[in-house]
Please model this.
Amino acid sequence: MKEEYTIGKLAKESGVTVETVRFYEQKGLINQPSPKSGYRKYPYDDVIKIRFVKRAKELGFTLNEAKELLQLRVKSDAKCGQVKLKAEQKLEDVDKKIKDLNKIKRSLKSLIQTCSNNESSTSECPILESFEKDKK
Amino acid sequence: MKEEYTIGKLAKESGVTVETVRFYEQKGLINQPSPKSGYRKYPYDDVIKIRFVKRAKELGFTLNEAKELLQLRVKSDAKCGQVKLKAEQKLEDVDKKIKDLNKIKRSLKSLIQTCSNNESSTSECPILESFEKDKK
DNA sequence: CTTTACTCCGTTGTGTACTACAGGGTTTAT
DNA sequence: ATAAACCCTGTAGTACACAACGGAGTAAAG
Model:
């Protein structure tokens, strides 16, 4: 866990490509370290940031949303109220996602169960109704 | 809840545009009802399918993955073993997503808490470490 | 001190998921 | 029965998130 990373090492360490790092830099997900000696040096923090972004994307957040999530830390000085508000909104999103994923999970479990008791009478998987129960 | 939908009504009812419906049709997410009388008619089932796809996407599944999830129902005749396997894989995915979302959730909650006790000493939000704890 | 590996910047290409016409035909309402 | 609203097929364009490449400079290893 050194403190200085070249772009290549950063990329490898965080599980993305060099191009992705540069892309994220452009988009402001990590801040550009001005190339002091020709090459840029990145702190270890950026490894963690990029890993976070990677996973956030897999969870259905866009790059911009991931950026917002990242920005929630640090800025808690003057605009604590704003940060709190944003955090609360994100929390709602996250909660809804968890709920819906649990619905899908239950459906999948039930499907696996039905498949195991191989009575298989054109067993309808309830996955389609995942988001229909308790609706309206 | 009628049984026959024109593409426009289907789109409206499922919260997407007409173009999106056609796009999903092309991609095989819903099956093309041959335009018997010049216009196509869709069953109510397609409303539910499209709503499902929509939400699945927000949960980080691709269109193809959503398609796979949809295909898990129905086909449980001969290849029950295959379906079960696929369902089990999806279940793992879903479980991992839920776990990670819970980590983010805890981070957000803690951030909100810190913000509420307005001691705000450059309070570092732990969201960045969401996926770093218990790693390696 | 030269070779090899890595980096720089900029431009272009790729895959996914739509979105917007264009130029028609069909249905429905008045 | 005709105008408005809706549908058809097909093609082209857009936004996001990278990936690949070209041509040149820099760093590190032997």
